[in-house]
């Protein structure tokens, strides 16, 4: 039926080849620690998954973000389910820590700082600046988190 695997579509109508291209783009931007996590050299935590999901969405690599959950979701299944159960508790209903914009900004700056080359750090800086400008926000700085 299919001549090759690239013709077989993954979720959301993107081909495996598209997901692989997004993965390569993301890995090029990653620092050493994230590369170790994504190559299974280091164990993925729920916090890592939350951060990497945020970053893939920010850089408009959503298909790779979905692929991350398919690949590493079992590694974080227990803590994820425990967190979801905790969030169902009445005292957590008003808790907004999951939507903390400052946490995302901090992840972006750390991701930029840890990129392997100056060229990638500059590209990330410009991309963040462009996205924040579109939202009418100033570029986040380390001083925002002190």
What report would you give on this structure?
It is a single chain. The protein contains seven helices and no strands. Helix 1 (16-29) crosses helix 4 (62-72) and helix 6 runs antiparallel to helix 7 (118-135). The model is unreliable at 1-12 (pLDDT under 50). It is globular. It has 146 residues and is an all-alpha fold. It has helices spanning 16-29, 32-38, 46-58, 62-72, 77-87, 101-114, 118-135. The chain starts with 15 loop residues before the first helix and ends in an 11-residue tail after the last helix. It has one domain. This is XRE family transcriptional regulator.
Could you give the topology of this structure?
Blueprint (H helix, E strand, L loop, with lengths): L15 H14 L2 H7 L7 H13 L3 H11 L4 H11 L13 H14 L3 H18 L11
Short description:
It comes from Blautia intestinalis. This protein is an all-alpha fold.
Main traits of this protein?
single chain, 146 residues, mainly alpha, 0% strand, globular, disordered N terminus, XRE family transcriptional regulator
């Amino acid at each position: 039926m299919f001549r090759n695997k690239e013709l077989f579509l993954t979720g959301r109508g993107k081909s495996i080849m598209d997901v692989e291209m997004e993965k390569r783009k993301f890995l090029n931007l990653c620092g050493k620690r994230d590369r170790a996590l994504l190559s299974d050299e280091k164990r993925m935590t729920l916090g890592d998954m939350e951060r990497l999901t945020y970053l893939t969405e920010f850089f408009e690599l959503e298909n790779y973000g979905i692929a991350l959950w398919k690949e590493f979701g079992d590694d974080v299944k227990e803590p994820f389910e425990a967190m979801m159960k905790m969030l169902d508790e009445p005292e957590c209903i008003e808790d907004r820590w999951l939507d903390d914009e400052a946490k995302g900004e901090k992840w972006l700056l750390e991701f930029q700082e840890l990129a392997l080359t100056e060229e990638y750090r500059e590209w990330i800086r410009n991309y963040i600046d462009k996205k924040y400008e579109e939202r009418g926000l100033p570029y986040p700085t380390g001083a925002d988190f002190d």
